[in-house]
User: What shape does this take?
Amino acid sequence: MILVTGSTGFLGAHLLYELICKGLRVKALYRKGSDIDFVRKTFSRYCTDFTKKFEPIQWIEGDIMDLYSLQEALEGIDKVYHTAGKVSYNATDKDVLLRVNQLGTQNLVNACLDAKVKKLCHVSSVSALGRSEQGETITELHLWKTSRINSYYAISKYGAEREVWRGVAEGLDAVIVNPSVIIGPGNWKSGSAKMFSTIYKWMPFYTPGTNGYVDVRDVAAIMVKLMESDIKNERFIVSSEDIPYRQLIWMIAQNLERGKPFIRLPKILAEIGWRLEYLKRIVGIDPTFTREIVRSAFNKFYYDNQKAVKALDFEYTPIEESIKNTARIFLDDRKG
Ligand SMILES: NC(=O)c1ccc[n+]([C@@H]2O[C@H](COP(=O)([O-])OP(=O)(O)OC[C@H]3O[C@@H](n4cnc5c(N)ncnc54)[C@H](OP(=O)(O)O)[C@@H]3O)[C@@H](O)[C@H]2O)c1
Assistant: This one.
């Protein structure tokens, strides 16, 4: 039997769908207050018999910060997919990022070792691979360097990966995936899916950076393929294409039938912008445009995706197709 953590999240819900479609038995970890309906909604986007597909999931309440709840959840489990995590580029979330991503993963790794779980799939991030210095293409062999410009999210994901490698040294079999920015229908108010609602409302600006992108269904499919293979104790970049922000934003705008953002945002304005946004904290509102986001939007990141392609004979969904599919779902959701 399989346990999925973070099952009520964007990636977790798509992973549950992939596992259920393969006829596998799944326990899904949720927290008090988790939106289980989001999983049902995600299923409904891909099939008409979604209620039938949703029924076999065994739901178990727990928290990765609570070791005892993990020990209970791991009863009868031989494979674990760890997608639970905090995604934030807001420096004010430093403590929660380090707690949930690093300590939460430490708890899960320890519980998996105790329960003699056969294999763990840990969802890391390309940010845990460290930054390129001269715009070189990053591979799985890239070494992390401590630097003041690393975001707290990246530091927390790097710390989480180190916990998994420690577990491997103590006898756990694991695979690690390092996805780039994941594209797909998620919560339109947060994460990468928020790009669609922002561009739909009004977005005249684009920035000169480049980043890697991958379809959420491809991430789920690669995770399952890795877990069903003999591959163990390796990490894999999961990224379909590196695309300049301008091209990405234009593709989204076009598919949402919105005007193309036409003003290249000057760096100086972005620098002023995140500082002004920061002031929102005074009235208790989390800034949406942060220093970390500005750094990323003006940098160029390139990722080598060939390791997973060759090991799994995998063909990625082109990002244009992912955007088309996500935009269609976004517009359908708006119609209600
Ligand atoms: N989205 C991306 O572009 C991207 C790219 C690379 C890597 N990743 C990684 O992929 C993973 C999933 O990301 P996502 O975009 O799916 O995030 P998400 O939509 O925010 O989902 C996060 C999930 O983690 C759960 N969670 C958070 N804290 C928890 C805790 N203490 N105990 C148990 N569950 C907890 C959440 O539960 P609730 O529903 O109760 O909040 C939710 O189910 C993360 O590890 C992230 O770092 C994401």
